[in-house]
Specification:
The chain is α/β, with parallel strands linked by helices. The chain has two domains: 355 residues, Glycogen Phosphorylase B (Rossmann fold, 3-Layer(aba) Sandwich); 271 residues, Rossmann fold (3-Layer(aba) Sandwich), CATH 3.40.50.2000. 45% of the residues lie in helices and 14% in strands. The protein has 31 helices and 22 strands. The longest helix is centred in the middle third of the chain and has 26 residues. Its cofactor is pyridoxal 5'-phosphate.
């Protein structure tokens, strides 16, 4: 979620008033804002997407709740020591959190372990361990519409009789100390992005958030007076018409068997009725196609922790497979491929398959990704129910990612086209009229230059390196992962360095290359990549031949509040994943909206950015998905490229020989060995096209006016990538709710009955 103060002031239309009031107290608002800790309760794009969605849902007047876990420790703070990433605990609640309100009156029990007893009246889950879920509410204000939604985060608490009720022979002290075991559930965020780690505590977290949330939803459903004469509602027929639940990846997939358990075991609905209601309630968003990221929980772990849920999953699977067998008799291989249970070795539950079978809609997050989901990853399911599969291209909130982080540009745009674009970003197309307006071109360039000077000052303060603010700011910030190919960027840096040294008098367009992002603590290769970037930076930044022509900076502890500083100052945005691996990306959109040009592959939302702005207004290079597929068919041989490309060979040899690590010549052996023998993401295959494309970038940068005109064309085409547009599509195609642009009267205004929002429609 990042910081809340400035976002709240902007959405409430109070920023200028607050700035002025604070100034009159002899304080500086910006200094105050820097004191607030980021709420870093997610890992990367998926978590930040949820935050943008909350902002858009409130701005569109949807009755929507965001549910999650109130981690005591969020994503780790990254320190760089001697070029290596070191993790520190993110004690973000140390000074308290003024934005949250504990709601002990809505505390709920969550059950674990135990056993299942079957009887004539149905199944009973008994002898369980209970953990209490305590909700904390954070307000989510819409933009200038007086709507305030809720983000409800659950914290784990041990019940007061924890460890004191059974066979306790009087070790009272130990029993109280053991309360920590229960409360550890909400202690810390697992720091993996695009990687599945099948740990028991993680499964406990996933079920904890799901069980608490579903009880909360059902309590609210039963209490609402809708379509019911009873004070408490017991008929669930209207449940899917009143409630829509969107599963953000498979992490909350246990919600499907949990809702079935509530309907069948507790509310005593017949299975078929319960299943119909469940399917109509849930929709699933897929966020990745990387096999190592797909959640596959061992059956024996689920059996121990959630025995009743395993039985329900088996029953869902049996009925699912019976249906497939009736349509495709004797096709045992299809049954194996489509089963929720994977046999062979340890039996596992494929959570994506559970989500597809248990949802009425499945979507990818960019056109190309949704195609891959349909035709490759889940092709058997798409063949069965093609109408279930959709696309919903991701977006970003223009409030945080333009108004808040880039007020200079936001104001410049408002001067030209008015202020309405903040709520309707498609209006940015009006900027096309000004693409040849010399004054506007100069003003856009001036805002960018001011942002660069400000960020250069920040860098010089934090990193003690002198930055040339007229150099091209070439920025690559995102989680560190092999598929995102920070290594390819690194090879380009080395290539530029070698070119400068080969001919120091030759014209070279000066660059400041900024790379930032966190590596999962257990991801060895990602940590080696960080060390390599820092080792290269050490050499490049201290070579007098290079001077101010080339500087390399690794941005420490990349997070939302740092993104808000670097993105408005960026000239060139690096979006260079291997085609077919980045589901969408959202950083790409933030850079586009903030006046950076993109160098990128035809992957994720880059494809649609090129479609909107015209491919000639992005620097697109490299293999397309078809080329990657073809290369896989032939077999990728890295050696071929190494032998054919002298500059690539030189760069790789320097890494291999210890040119960048003279004290430890073999330091990067693992990296080099990976690049030659098991590089799934084919860095060498795109290297040549990447370097050539970078030469075109440098050439255009020399012509400031032509560069800025291309920037304006990009900003004018960025309207599609508002999360407001994304959420309108979810609302229309999946949740079946109507956004409302009614401004609720402020609390101090009289309420006009006619203007009151009628309380019908789904709560998402």
């Amino acid at each position: 979620m990042g910081r809340t103060l400035q976002n709240t002031m902007i959405n409430l239309g109070l920023q200028n008033a607050c700035d002025e009031a604070v100034y009159q107290l002899g304080l500086d608002m910006e200094e105050l804002e820097e004191i607030e800790e980021d709420a870093g309760l997610g890992n990367g794009g998926l978590g930040r997407l949820a935050a943008c969605f909350l902002d858009s849902m409130a701005t569109l007047g949807l009755a929507a709740y965001g549910y999650g876990i109130r981690y005591e420790y969020g994503i780790f703070n990254q320190k760089i020591r001697d070029g290596w990433q070191v993790e520190e605990a993110d004690d973000w609640l140390r000074h308290g959190n003024p934005w949250e309100k504990a709601r002990p009156e809505y505390m709920l029990p969550v059950h674990f372990y135990g056993r299942v007893e079957h009887s004539a009246t149905g199944a009973k889950w008994i002898d369980t361990q209970v953990v209490l879920a305590l909700p904390y509410d954070t307000p989510v204000p819409g933009y200038m519409n007086n709507t305030v939604n809720t983000m409800r985060l659950w914290s784990a608490r041990a019940p007061n009789d924890f460890n004191l009720r059974d066979f306790n022979v009087g070790d009272y002290i130990q029993a109280v100390l053991d309360r920590n075991l229960a409360e550890n559930i909400s202690r810390v965020l697992y720091p993996n992005d695009n990687f599945f780690e099948g740990k028991e505590l993680r499964l406990k977290q996933e079920y904890f958030v799901v069980a608490a949330t579903l009880q909360d939803i059902i309590r609210r459903f039963k209490a609402s007076k809708f379509g019911s004469t009873d004070t408490v509602r017991t008929v669930f027929d209207s449940f899917p018409d009143q409630v829509a639940i969107q599963l953000n990846d498979t992490h909350p997939a246990m919600a499907i068997p949990e809702l079935m358990r509530i309907f069948v075991d507790i509310e005593k609905l017949p299975w078929d009725k319960a299943w119909d209601l469940t399917k109509r309630t849930f929709a699933y968003t897929n966020h990745t196609v990387l096999p190592e990221a797909l959640e596959r929980w061992p059956v024996d772990l689920v059996e121990k922790l959630l025995p009743r849920h395993l039985q329900i999953i088996y029953e869902i699977n049996q009925r699912h497979l019976d249906h497939i067998a009736s349509l495709f008799p004797n096709d045992v291989d299809r049954l194996r491929r489509m089963s929720l249970i994977e046999e062979g070795g340890t039996k596992r539950i494929n959570m994506a398959h559970l989500c597809i079978v248990g949802s009425h809609a499945v979507n990818g997050v960019a056109k190309i990704h949704s195609e891959i989901v349909k035709t490759q990853v889940f092709e058997d399911f798409a063949e069965l129910e093609p109408e279930k599969f959709q696309n919903k291209t991701n977006g970003i909130t223009p409030r945080r990612w333009l108004l808040l982080c880039n007020p200079g540009l936001a104001e410049l745009i408002a001067e030209k086209i008015g202020e309405d674009y903040v709520r309707d970003l498609s209006q940015l197309t009006k900027l096309h009229e000004f693409v040849d307006d010399d004054l506007f071109i100069r003003e856009v360039a001036k805002v960018k230059q001011e942002n660069k000077v400000k960020f250069a000052l920040y860098l010089e303060k934090e990193y003690k390196v002198k930055i040339n603010p007229s150099s091209m700011f070439d920025v690559h910030v995102k989680r560190i992962h092999e598929y995102k190919r920070q290594l390819m960027n690194c090879l380009h840096i080395i290539t530029m360095y070698n070119r400068i040294r080969r001919d120091p008098t030759k014209l070279f367009v000066p660059r400041t290359v900024i790379i930032g992002g966190k590596a999962a603590p257990g991801y060895h290769m990602a940590k080696m990549i960080i060390k390599l970037i820092n080792a290269v930076a050490q050499v490049v930044n201290n070579d007098p031949t290079v001077g101010s022509k080339l500087k390399v900076i690794f941005l420490e502890n990349y997070r939302v509040s740092l993104a808000e500083k670097v993105i408005p100052a960026t000239d060139l945005s690096e979006q260079i994943s291997t085609a077919g691996t980045e589901a969408s990306g959202t950083g790409n959109m933030k850079f586009m909206l903030n006046g950076a040009l993109t160098i990128g592959t035809m992957d994720g939302a880059n494809v649609e950015m090129a479609e909107e702005a015209g491919e000639e207004n992005l620097f697109i290079f490299g293999m397309r998905v078809e080329d990657v597929t073809e290369l896989d068919r032939k077999g990728y041989n890295a050696q071929l490229y190494y032998d054919r490309l002298p500059e690539l060979k030189q760069a790789v040899d320097q890494i291999k020989s210890g040119f960048f690590s003279p004290k430890e010549p073999n330091l990067f052996n693992d990296v080099v060995n990976m690049l030659f023998h098991h590089d799934r993401f084919k860095v060498f295959a795109d290297y040549e096209a990447y370097v050539k494309c970078q030469e075109k970038v440098s050439e255009l940068y020399l012509n400031s006016k032509a560069w800025t005109k291309m920037v304006i064309r990009n900003i004018a085409a960025a309207g599609k990538f508002s999360s407001d547009r994304t959420i309108k599509e979810y609302a229309r195609d999946i949740w079946h709710v109507e956004p409302s642009d009614l401004k609720i009267p402020a609390p101090n205004e009289p309420r006009d009955a006619a203007q009151d929002k009628t309380p019908n429609g789904t709560a998402a």
